[in-house]
Amino acid sequence: MLGGRLRRLAPLAGAVVLLASGCAKKAPQTTLSPKGPEARTIANLINPVFLVAGVVFVLVLGGALFVAIKFRARDDDDFDAFPAQVHGNFKLEIGWTIVPAIILAVIGALTVSTIFTLSKKPVAGALHVQVTGQQWWWEYRYDLNNDGKFDEIVTANDLVIPEGRQIALTITSRDVIHSWWAPALNGKKDAVPNHRSPLTIQADHTGEFIGQCTEYCGLSHAQMRIKVISVSADEFTKWADNQQKPAANPTEQAAVEGWKVFAGQCTSCHRVNGLKDPSAPTKDFAYPNVVNQRAGVVPNLTHLMSRTTFAGATFDLRKSDDSADGRYCKALGIHWADKPADLTRCLNRVDLEAWLLDPPGRKPMAPGPAMSPASRGMPNLHLTGQQIDYLIAYLSTLK
Ligand SMILES: [Cu+2]
Predict the structure, then answer these.
(1) Which end of the chain has fewer CB atoms within 10 angstroms, the N or the C?
(2) Fold of 28-57+86-244
(3) Which residues pair with residue 376 across a beta bridge?
(4) Ligand 1 centre distance from Cα of residue 363 (Å)
(5) Residues 170, 172, 174, 175, Cα dihedral to 10°
């Protein structure tokens, strides 16, 4: 008896679990709370469609239940008699053909008009940024002077944008198909090699918007996250000015040692703009074997410390605190925009050391030999503890 009742309750329990899972308090990747005009345009389509679908659901299911209960077989029914045979009800049949057709036509018209609204050309004052999918992280290149070349800023992981301004993204990929999606700002757009797909986003206010790659792209697809950081116009200008500066030579002893290790071990892949040769500090560093340079296929590290995350936004570059904002260092009570130089004291050394010690152990990757074009990810370079200390001292100067 109990078993039977439990069995009957099981589907109900399943439905409750499904329903309750939609109630998460902290759901940064929800599509249902738009934080910009493009996402709102989508919400303005989703909401009425869901409403109509909900009404249809209740009416159809309610009708089916009503009929099933009202006309179910009763004890005093004559079970041998055939039910009365009726042909279709003409009016009903016409009705339930035409009404859904009208509903679908209205939804279709709304959908097409939404698609047109979303594919409008960017406005004149838009900020142009190229988004490149990589295995397995996102590269962002900014075209600040609007000359069609995305060459003023090269960064990774964090997409920093000014609030209230339209951002015209050009989405592409260097290797396989990825898909860029920050649900609070707009729908998703595939990143296809040799294609440039436009997508505009705009954030109403300052804040952080989380997303992730949504097209299976290989081993670390799940570790290919997106973080859009919307800041005030002033803060953006400060950030952009800083990003365009080349790296300065380190002066502190440990950092100078790290610079040497970096020049020897890391430059077959990573670039640091303005990097000088540690053995001739006024000369530009000559990157090894330019033909096989993997620059562009790995994150540019010139301003590593200005980021809040690393390795596809998988790890925080700042010590975690309850402010949940990588740009604010609670321990020191300082903000990224005010004192970027001090932020390295908030560095999340634990994860950065672990990364340098064994990158493929921290994030699934398929690294080959350093110069191999088939290499995907960062190999274990078997660095010693001393080298890692020096390297972190050097990386800390890359602000
Ligand atoms: Cu991807």
Answers:
(1) N
(2) Immunoglobulin-like (2.60.40)
(3) 366
(4) 14
(5) 170
Residues of the chain with CATH 2.60.40.420: 28-57+86-244
Task: Determine the distance from the C-alpha atom of residue 272 to the mean position of all C-alpha atoms in its chain, rounded to a whole number.
Answer: 25
CA 191 to centroid of ligand 1, rounded, Å: 8
Tokens of 253: 């002893």
Percent share of the chain, pLDDT over 70: 89
pLDDT at 187 over 90: yes
Residue pair 207/200 in contact (Cβ under 8 Å)? The answer is: no
Distance CA 366, CA 37 (A): 39
Q: How far are the Cα atoms of 26, 33, 102, 172, 213 from residue 29, in angstroms, in the given order?
A: 9, 9, 33, 22, 12
Domain spanning 253-395, CATH architecture = Orthogonal Bundle (1.10)
Task: Compute, in angstroms, the gap from residue 212 CA to the centroid of ligand 1.
Answer: 8
How far CA 42 is from CA of 122, 180, 242, 299, in Å, comes to 17, 16, 35, 33
d(CA 346, ligand 1 centre) in Å: 29
Confidence of residue 30 (pLDDT cuts 50, 70, 90): confident
CATH 1.10.760 segments of the chain? 253-395
What residues are paired with 162 via a beta bridge? 231
**Other C-beta atoms lying within 10 Å of the C-beta of residue 146:** 12
**Do residues 266 and 392 lie in contact, with contact meaning Cβ atoms separated by under 8 Å?**
no
Distance 107 CA to ligand 1 centre (A): 32
**Residue 287: partners with Cβ closer than 8 Å, 6 or more residues away:** 267, 268, 271, 293, 295
Burial 331-363 (b: 16+ CB within 10 A, else e): eeebbbeeebeebbebbbeebbeebbbebeebb
Residue 290: predicted pLDDT: 53
pLDDT of res. 287: 87
Residue 310 pLDDT > 50: yes
Residue 46 neighbours by CB under 8 Å, 6+ apart: 31, 32
CA of 92 to the centre of ligand 1 (A): 50
* Lowest pLDDT segment from 127-136, 205-214, 291-300: 291-300
pTM equals 0.88
**221 CA → ligand 1 middle, Å:** 5
